[in-house]
Amino acid sequence: MPDMFSMRSDDDTVDVGIVYSPSPETLRVFGASYMQDKETSGSLKILDPKGATFATFDVWQSKWVLTAEMEA
């Protein structure tokens, strides 16, 4: 899917499926709601349209951390 961001499990052993959107903000809102459920385990990541990691959800801070912030 061209120009689509995707969200999937950050853990290769847990398959939560893949959600696509042209907007990483939409995925961040959707993923944060999922991650804040007390029954959720594991973590999520958002990939840019080229497949590179754009952001990961930090379960300790309960927020998305952009890859660019981690590399700075």
Structure write-up:
The protein has about 70 residues and is α+β, with helices and mostly antiparallel strands. The protein has one domain (about 5-65). The chain has two helices and five strands. The protein has helices at about 25-35, 65-70; strands at about 5-10, 20, 45, 55-60, 65. A five-stranded antiparallel beta sheet has the order 2-1-3-4-5. The longest helix has 12 residues, at about 25-35. The termini are far apart. The relative contact order is 0.22. The mean pLDDT is about 90.
Which short descriptors sum up this protein?
about 70 residues, alpha+beta, five-stranded antiparallel beta sheet
Going by helix content, strand content and strand pairing, the class is alpha+beta
Mean pLDDT: 88
Our count of domains comes out at 1
Continuous helix count: 2
Task: Summarize the structure in short.
This protein is an alpha+beta fold. Helix content is about 25%, strand content about 30%. The protein has a five-stranded antiparallel beta sheet.
Topology overview:
Elements: E1 5-9, E2 19-21, H1 24-35, E3 44-47, E4 53-58, E5 63-66, H2 67-71
Antiparallel strand pairs: 1-2, 1-3, 3-4, 4-5
